[in-house]
Amino acid sequence: QMADPFLYNPGDRSHYGCLGHEVQIEYLKAYVCRPSFFTDKAVILVHDVFGWRFPDIRYIVDLIAGHGYITICPDFFKGTEPWKSTDHWADFADWLKDHDPTKVDKEADVVLKYLKEQCGAKKIGIVGFSWGGMAVHHLMLKNPQLTAGVSLYGRIIRDSEERYNLLNPTFFIFGEKDHTISLDQILLLEEKLKQYCKVSYKIKVYPGQVHGFAQLKPEDMKPNDKPYIEEARNDMIDWIKMFV
């Protein structure tokens, strides 16, 4: 059986007791965590293929909220099944057809409206991991309401000029050992952004890191990776603080 090229193993994750709560927003469920004080700044978090209930993702929602942002992770799969570690890799392409990371505009609009009208948010950023990293790249080309984006190891899809004309500052985080994204693709992304992008952007590759590295909870980190994981998270937060 072919090894899952895109999917790290989510099976051996420790449990996580969340700090936030679940809400219903129109037709979407979402997980929200608010900081302990009032703020008019928010961050939308786009989950990976394992969906909005995945403990690692909820941990990151709480982490960002701890820095002073209303942080929300909607179910971008709209109640359909997320990918599971027991699913067969051969079925992934079919699953992806029904879970297209570039078809998230309607959900993003629903959540933006909620954040503005119900939470008083005036500045809203977006962060996404893997599948969500692709969604962030897409939304930063389409939605001017998002004041900044961080895309973590989202595969670089479709090479066309429209892929590089970002509307607002965007930070791309990659792992050096991510076998879903080649260094060539990252170099091409950099070259094209130089050519077409009119706003701030940043690309950073973290040494020795594999796909999915940045969302591990502390107890799931290997000691050698920990400094890079923490650096990536701090860089992510710094980018948000700079622009949101």
From TrEMBL:
Q: What is its main location?
A: cytoplasm
InterPro entries linked = AB_hydrolase_fold (IPR029058), CMBL (IPR042946), Dienelactn_hydro (IPR002925)
Location in the cell: Cytoplasm, Cytosol
Q: Which parts of the sequence belong to the Dienelactone hydrolase domain?
A: 29-242
What Pfam families does the record tag this protein with? Answer: DLH
GO molecular function terms listed in the Swiss-Prot or TrEMBL record: hydrolase activity
What is one term from the GO cellular component aspect held by the record? cytosol
Question: What family does the Swiss-Prot or TrEMBL record give for this protein?
Answer: Belongs to the dienelactone hydrolase family.
Q: Protein name, please?
A: Carboxymethylenebutenolidase homolog
